[in-house]
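Reopening this one. Same input as before:
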Amino acid sequence: MDNYKFGKIKAFFIHLKAVTLLFLFLSSCTNKHPRQADLPELSFEFIRFERLFFGDDDIPLAKLKQDFPYLFPAQTPDTIWQAKRKDSLQLVLYHASQRLTSVKLEKRISSVLQHAAFYFPEMTTPKKVITLLTDVDYSMRAVDADSLLLLSVDTYLGEEHELYQGIPLYIKRKLSPSHIESELIDAVAPRFVPNPKDRSFLTQMVTHGKRLLLHDYLAPDLTKEQHIQYTAAQWAWAEEHEQEVWDYFIANELLFSTDDRLRFRFLLPSPFSKFYTFLDENSPGRIGQWIGYRIVQAYQKRTGATLNEVLEADAQEILKKSRYKP
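Same output, byte for byte:
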């Protein structure tokens, strides 16, 4: 073979190799989430406790207390539990909650835990997942108790459910089956995103941003607004006013402030965020969480950091290297 032909063939294979590498690189970028077949197999006991308590009076109360002692505070007399099993409102809640079928619930819970085990192999996953009624206590919709994971099924009936009359709209919007994964992730998030000692507004925002980034990995099929439990309109408002919100934080020198009132204005659940300007109108609550998420996203995109690297990074380092600028 003459040198000319050899050179052409060599050039072709070099080009082919480059194209292949580019394809693999792009594939890795666009398919950052594991396939179902790559997720670890998990085994946990799934218990519909509310069915045992309300749905089968043949199970003696003494037996339930023996099997689930952690669900029965010692100071509560048996007469209270017996009356609760017959209470008409409790039974309405019970029957409404049974629309959440066990098959779908278990599958959705398992998916979140499988993704968590994939990214954090050292994690000890719960041995029992227990559903129960909590009198619509929406402050405790999912609870991670190490070996136990508790899910309050009467807080996922849908925002229009008649049993939620009187609950503020900004809270009712979260009482939807579509937010089960988000609440589960928020429950286990402290395992991976501990509360910071630094009380600055920036650190609190970035900590929430890390938690929301965790959502991307543990429930990749959710929509972007589902992770933070916004409506589509609320997410659109945040995108449209992102620069104005950031400019407000900078102009008022809020980033390194430790004023605890900022939590109530921009980080905790509320009907709207409190700028005390025209921005209040139509703004979603918790806009500081959303900004923290954008900063963390910018940091990961610019640095190529892995999930674990992002979670371990310092808030000021994240802001600096993100070059965040809406």
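So the earlier flakiness isn't reproducible anymore. For the record, The longest helix spans residues 3-30.
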